[in-house]
Amino acid sequence: LDLATPEKQAASVLDIIALFVILAAFFCNMYVAIDATAGERERRSLEPLLINPVPRAVFVGGKWLATVVFGACGVLLTLLLLVVSISLVPLEEIGLRIDLQPGLVIGIFLIAFPLVLFAGAFQLLVSSFARSFKEAQTYLTLTLFVPMVPGMVMTMSPFVAQDWMMVVPVLSQQVLISDLLRGEHPSLLQHSFAVTSTLGCGLLVLWLTSWLFSREQILFGD
Q1: Helix, coil or strand: residue 142
Q2: pLDDT tens-digit series, residues 81-104
Q3: Nearest-CA neighbor of 68 among 130, 99, 112?
Q4: CA dihedral for 138, 140, 146, 148, sign (positive or negative)
Q5: Residues 6+ positions from 152 with CB-CB distance below 8 Å
Q6: pTM for this predicted structure
Q7: Which residues, 6 or more positions from 30, have their beta carbon under 8 angstroms from its beta carbon?
């Protein structure tokens, strides 16, 4: 006896939606992060910028905010295109139902936004070690496989969410978005753990990037 609701059946098939959203959080700001670090080093515009008597944390914060803007816009655009695409697919004919109402879309965006903040900081840190734009592109392209792992696992072999998953960035967002798509409502405590852990990791990575920019070796990519 199958007790799954149509929403749960649809979410089991369309768990990949959460994967698309998470990849957008990493992919849409990737080239901004590359250009703001390795790109400026390759163009030799980084040294004149750092000569200015401004704390290095201010430079890093400005570059980070630029990546966040592009990442947030990319996630929002991905969600809007998913709404349009799903509305054109006759899911009812195969016994599935998924209704991306504005409230659900806003909820998914709010879950993904802390991940955008973390992704921007992480990509700035990684690309700071590259000596050229292409080298940084290679590094960050390889790191895109990391956020894909939880989504691929949940798509092929769904598992029961546990509390410890809420403190793992990327995995917590994947679980929370999948729960929303199934028509379930994660607790406020789960949301709090996911947001706190993701933002905490993002701030730590951002501090490491600021420390790197305070060293002379940042001009050479060492």
Answers
A1: helix
A2: 988 887 787 766 666 666 778 888
A3: 112
A4: negative
A5: 19
A6: 0.84
A7: 123, 140, 144
